[in-house]
Batch of 2 targets.
Target 1
Amino acid sequence: MADEPRAKEGGFQGVAMAISLWGIVLLSVFFFLRYDVPELASDRGYLDTLFYVILGITGAAYILYQVALGWVIYRFRGNRAGAASSHWHESHKLEWTWTLGTALILVPIVWTGLVHWERVKAPAPDDAVAVMAVGAQFQWDFQYPGADGEFGRFDPQLYSIENQIGLDRDDPAASDDWVLTNQLVLPVGRPARILLRSKDVQHAFFLPNFRVKQDLVPGMLTEVVFTPVKTGSYEVACAELCGLGHYRMRAFLEVMDEADYQAWLAENAPGS
Amino acid sequence: MAHAKESFISKYIFSFDHKMIGKQYFTLAMIMGFIGGILAVLIRLQLGFPSQPWPFLENLFPVGMASGIMTPEFYVSLFTMHGTIMVFFLLSLLPVSGFGNFLIPLQIGARDMAFPFLNMLSFWTVVPGAIIIIISFFVEGGAAASGWTAYPPLSAIRSAIPGSGAGQTLWLVGMIFFVASFTMGGLNFVVTILNLRTKGLRLMRMPLTTWAQFVVGILGLLSFPALAAGAILLTFDRSLGTSFFLPAGIFIGDTLMPHEGGTPLLWQHLFWFLGHPEVYIIMLPAMGFTSDVLATFCRRPIFGYRSMVYAIMAIGTLSFLVWGHHMFVSGMSPFLGSLFVVTTLAIAIPSAVKAFNWLFTIAKAKIRFTTAALFALAVVSLFVTGGLTGIFLGTNATDIQLHDTYFVVGHFHFIMAGAGLFGAFAAVYFWYPKMFGRKLNERIGKIHFWITFVAYYAVFFPMHYLGVAGMMRRIYDPNVYEYLQPLQPVNLFITISAFVLFAGQLLFLWNYFVSMRRGETATGNPWDAAGLEWSTPAKPGHGNWEGDIPEVHRWPYDYSRPDRKRDFVGQWES
């Protein structure tokens, strides 16, 4: 076995591999620190907390593992003095340690995640502000139920330019309903219940600042419940591919304090 | 067994030899991968320089880039076809159909696959599928444009997007060809491995590559029929007026659709019942290649062989129980979502077993840094990076924000595409001498490795930043959103890195085709490897071994035994 040419297959490549792994860790973490989730404007801060906890755990695992990988590559490169490889290839103790260790780390993550999921999916309280979001290629219509608090029936036969959401005006509950296009207004501090339906294909109601995302599925009624905690104007995005105009299916969410909201309602809602 | 004389057609076209069929798959997969890469470059061109005119591109794409500016519908077709081509026609064809066919008989000591005719047929079934997929770019309306996931109603209703016309029809037909081919292949893998192992090759003496291909064969057999069923039902919805996936009241293009009674969620369940095992169909062979290549160039037995085998089985089994994690925000029952969290995060356990076993294989080694070894080491790094980001997405609570953002794109390009691609590269550099009797050029190989490795991290790691900052997938121009505008420099950086990554692959293609004729000639066992395949001649003929098939006396990882002078003992040696 000619060993001389092989000795060369060790030096530079091994050192370079170790340095590049360490460099990647350094740069990726350094730049990660410059980016953050969009500013939080809802009561779902607990989701951010869980995100940061998982980021801490996986970030530590990422750094430790990649640094260790770089180190073993550097330490056991073939051309080092007295290089020899070992036949040792089994250790039940070690293997059980990392199997059970991984499982133990995962248990609290899964548990916390499921508890938070319950909270996100909890039914809306009775005093929630209810709005029906109707998605279509490529616009959002927001139906307010009016003073009776009930959404009027819709009928797909009635979809038209004037009646985008196909509201059936024969339904008494529809008499005081009104619609806003590409604009949603909510009061701060009160739970909002957004019902979601689609006229055509699938869309997703995405509020980056509110940690809210839910698909709109034709033939189904889905919903999200959250509480805005900060006033201001925010962007609403479509997050599910819905056609060639998917990228511009954008709306605005205006969060007002209660007094402004009531004034806005009085000014805009028909018949009030 | 040596065949006397073969005509050109029976040797190169309709060959029954598993090695030739494997190479045919390689060629097809590389052509498709090259096309998929060009699509990726065009996607990045748009995201790096939104709506900037590139007049010279109008000559190539007169409709999609009329006056040099990419249209939104062309952009949607691009990422749809990029995903389809890369997932199915590169990352499934090359490691599974290509290497599976090429290696299984060599590694288990068989003259050929169990069903050579079926094998030939499976290749010639996927070729029309690939041609149909490529042709779909040139039909009216362009190629399919509903994402590689083809969610109805977008994919079901012709007026929903231009690509949902003839392009989507051809996509479905192409996929059905692919599924037919892949199912034949899977059947062949399972039967061959169970029945044709040479004397002494117990299951627990099989190389991890063959173990992976065995489990992949089973996964393919059980999951692809779900896609075939879905594709046929979707074709019915599109062409015969059925309503499997379409509810009442769909209103597109000022027209109320006549469908009623179906649900789009049914498609999602069928698609992801294939889609998730498919990820492991891509991953598992890469894990096998990595293990075999690492053991050889570390001159060490793979650490924890038994737990590696159990991990492959565990991942394969769990892969059927996790599909719902793609549907946390789809409107599926929240209770079901919770169940899928548990099964999904359970996959982290066998994955961690793999990662630590690799680390301990490299520790106490005497590493020879061949190009194959470098790619295998890179798989370990990419696998851990991509695996960890999966924890955010597998936890339904944190998935709400990250779902359908670039965080997901970054995640799966590491864990599935990255590990799969780098694993395939490791395998090509490692087994090339067995394929062509020559080595790939190591100097060019190393340059190719460094460009690919560094550029890969540069392209896909920053995508996590974009996702965290809230940038959605599949959007033609992120600058429409005010909160995404500050991210444009990141998009530009990714685009430039992607160009470098693509250019690096041209080096590989050049190396691959030139080395066939000009590469350094190799002996039968150029790497001093212990696997059974290395006991064949430098370029094995039809039938693989000239004399009797050797008997197997040991496992394939007998490196650096303290009781032997030479640092490896081949499986065929007593």
Target 2
Amino acid sequence: MTATQEPTRGEIGRDRRRKEDQRLITGRTRWTDNITLPGMLHLAMVRSPFPHARITSIDTEAAKAAPNVVAVFTGADLGEGQGACINAWPVVPDQVTPAHLPMPTDRVAFAGETVAVVVARSAAEARDAAELVEVDYDELPAALDLKESADNKVLAHPDLGTNVSAVWRFDSAEAGTGGDVEQAIAEARENGIVIEREYRQQRLIPAFMEPRSTVVDPTGEQITVWSATQVPHILRFAIAATTGVPESKIRVIAPDVGGGFGGKLQQTPEEMITFAVARKLGKPVKFTETRSESLLTAHHGRDQWQRLTLAATKDGHVTGLKVDLLADLGAYVAIVGGGVPVLGAFMFNAIYKFPAYQFQTTNVLTNKTWTDAYRGAGRPEATFAIERLMDELAHELGKDPLKVREMNWIKHEEFPFTTVAGLEYDSGNYEAATARAKEMFGYDALRAEQAERRARGDRVQLGIGVSTFTEMCGLAPSRVLGSLNYGAGGWEHAEVRMLATGKVEVVTGASAHGQGHETAFSQIVADRLGVPFEDVEVLHGDTQISHKGLDTYGSRSLVVGGEALVRAVDKVIEKARPVAAHLLEASADDLEFADGRFTVRGTDSGVAITEVATAVFAAHNLPDGVEASIDSEATYDPVNFNYPHGTHLCAVEIDTETGQVRMRKYACCDDIGNVINPLIVSGQVHGGLVQGIAQALWEEAVYDDNGTLVTGSFVDYLLPTAADTISFELDHTTSPATTNSLGTKGVGEAGTIASTPAVVNAVVDALRPYGVHDVAMPCTPERVWRAINSGGPGGETTQAAAPHFDESEGAAQ
Amino acid sequence: MTRISLTVDGQNVVDDVEPRMLLVQYLREKLGKTGTVIGCDTSNCGACTVHLDGRSVKSCNVLAVQADGAEVTTIEGLAGADGTLHPVQEAFRECHGLQCGFCTPGMIMQTVDLLAENPSPSEEAIRLGLEGNLCRCTGYHNIVRAVQHAAGTAEGASA
Amino acid sequence: MIPAAFEYVAPASVEEALAALAEHGDDAKIIAGGQSLLPVLRMRLNAPEWVIDLGRIASLRGVRDGGDHLAIGAMTTHHDVGQDPLVHEHALLISKAITHLADAQVRHRGTFGGALAHADPAGDLGAPALALDATFVVQGPGGTREVPAADFFVDLFETAISDDEILTEVRVPKYDGWGAAYEKFVRIAHQWPIVAVAATVRMEGDTIAEARIGLTNMGSTPVRARAAEAALVGVPATEEGIAGAAALAADGTNPPSDLNGDADYRRHLATVLTRRAVLTAAGRG
């Protein structure tokens, strides 16, 4: 299965520079916040400072009287017109799902929730007036700590009677996909090895660079919504479904969108409020959040406690894995919401042949910002847990962590392989990827250096971390989603329009926000249709142009959207064939299609498909009964997920005096099947790696005991800079996916999923001689230092930020 | 309102502005120079970087009135009048130094400043020189390659 | 993101600025480079009615040789101070600290006097100014007075500058031939220091003759590590020689506990960083 991808004379596999870049590098961009319409009004939100409180009164009189204020609305003022924020995935039939109004009328459930909106002629005046809105609150006890909330000590929504939204469980014995995990654990306790650990997935913030912005224009027959979103189609559906405005009267446009990483796949309260205000006033309105608002209210990610039990034989063969999660949903069940931990359920067994497996997640409501998908969504959590455990097992056995993995992983000749979680992995070669990664990394030399530093008692210790990951991506087969009670399908749509001038318009339902669809999709179409790359125009992100689609998340655009495109192109060719035969006065059966031309087999006679398009446009000379169009569309529903995998190796240097962790080297060999554009793929991997590394080392959303987000700006929510990161060494092995025509697998989330455990394993590896077997994430210098000095995981983060931007009236100049 | 007069991307402009208006808002809202963007409120992200009298500054951290009399260059004024890209713009495309592109105007403007001060920077100097600009997409790897490419100190992107 | 409305005046001289300050008093804020003030205004943590801009006062800019000292104009940008050959020659510690201060864009705009007057104990200039026994020249309605560094930093964001005064100049005695190092400890590059140590030493052969050490973010103001300074006199500039003195660096400090570290960790860091800074300053790092 594994082979180096053949160099191609065509477009696929070529490192094309991106079509998107010309406008982005010259500032000729259309971000939502750039849009200005005649008479456009601006919104400012009045937000709750309390995590849980009754709203006793809202006085808007002073705000309404402020200069150039047009209106001030509370939730009650907007009434049913504000719609609702939907949860698309009730993971169990009796899921407890609090009603979620975009602007609540009587009670706030997290700090930052909007209680009133000010509309003014300028954004500055809206903000000025927002400060004049007087809101009285009766504070309520807040459910903040995840474990305490799971025990219902304080209720996040008192009327619901519980904080537990759902308990979702998978058991291989019950499902018939494997044995009984309790039995495996019992046997291992008797006569084997049991590893029991509890890991924390800290709360993260997606922190896309472009703050969210929405413009709604209610003038004209359709209401037009521009929004910085990953999901224009889903947003349109949700607005229609909850406001009663017919879907056909709503046009959603995602113009240039500055990153998402899952953080923009939400149907947000702010979008709904902006929509409602525009309808109410009949005027175009804009809301653009500040970075502080973004960090506070755009959905957060991760936030789990993971209780894990791994059973193995004395020689290191894993016999069972039991996973018990607590997942913090925040104040509401977001659009994917409780489905995020469920997406991880199928991945804890990873690349391994575990005979028994049990997974349970308890999804818990708290009075904090809601959580939802963040790059990887469920799979990073799973990968972290199992890859940390495999290192712990190796340590217990005194064996090399790669050796222990090899003992347990699926061998390349065993594909396709049905896992204990019930998925069928179509292809892969863990041996080949690992061998290549070790070679790039210089594994043996670094192990030797580690031993030497240990022996010398060097102040700087070296740690080597391993992560052999796989993931499921390409969301998703609709039937599988249906069986999981997800509210929508997982297909994707594409359309190919053959223009009279020989150019080709491609419409995709995927909605890019940095991924390079315009380039990669052009390459696919150029190759398959035999037209120049430059002649292909990719249109997306506007529901009036791309009328059908399920948008971009879950590493799905290429493997699902790309396949839809392939099928649409193939339909174009087949529709063109009888026309070409007619023009060539030949039998359709005698035509061959290659390099953009139909030729009559065995002759020089031929016609280009673009010439066929022109002929169809003129329609002067078509065969009888053939319609005057070769444009085609296709909707593709994937038959399976796909399963990229890879071996990631990380070396860190730890200053044992200060606890500072520095990246020394990072090498990875990923197998993502066939590659359309290696340049884009490398960019996806680099960016993914840094987001995963950032979870390991830097990022953490921290709340204090008052329910205030103390990491509410980039001063305290620590995104890494260029100066904190290193250059990476990347390579690929290729096991083409067998479930799509191009043999591709998703790559958008791979780096993030893989890198977090590689880094933490490296940190722990460096500290083994100090008796350390875990360091909590993020592995801050202080935690590492405390771990070195106590052997523990390093303690909690102090819940206070330093006041660098002071409120004092002092003499700051 | 305070009257200001300055040169932006080679064009003389005169306006009455509120003193509280930030330079970035002036560029975007009054001049339509929306190529320069706002990414944060604490001056951490650097997305709004422009050149003020020839040096890189964060235009969210300058009042428009403070730029009275100054010369401002934005991402939109970097390419030649005939559309020829600045070598740094070209290098970012060549090396895939951008994905979503939101941080890109600031990254490019800071890179131009960095290379003006140090035409042959080491990788470390490049990374430190860009510490005031956040990117969430690229992991910085290809941004560093792009700066090296523009400086002529590297071969460019590797796939 | 948008500051509350204010009136703006950009005086052309210190006298005009003082007059504006006298007129608007408590309702006014002075803006120098604005790199800390503008985020404060944008997040509406403060909403002055008047902003008095010192940016048009040419006399406040530049570094000049004052004989036994350097005179650094309050409105000289960090970048210009950092690049100044006089500073490099006579006050190397300041040059070293500035390379670590914020980022390039902020250094282009932020000013030496503005940062010191802001008096964030995590700011990178306070500890060097204190260690070097700088003198702060403050001008008010009654004329000019000089405040020694030891008296300048009063508390968190509070200095000896009165409401009706303006910092015009910082005078730094010359430390010709002294080695210097600024050891800044951060989790990521664009943070304020969790702890930083500013050290400058005068060597006699292989022995430390004099040492001056300022600590950043180890209390509500920059602080001197006087016990360590005293213990360093006469010790050999080796790791072993310095270690004992460096261990005293956190004596008497009262560092904060926050997201980036608790007080005990900061105390520990201060000792480690002091040892490293002194070694580097002594040319042995």
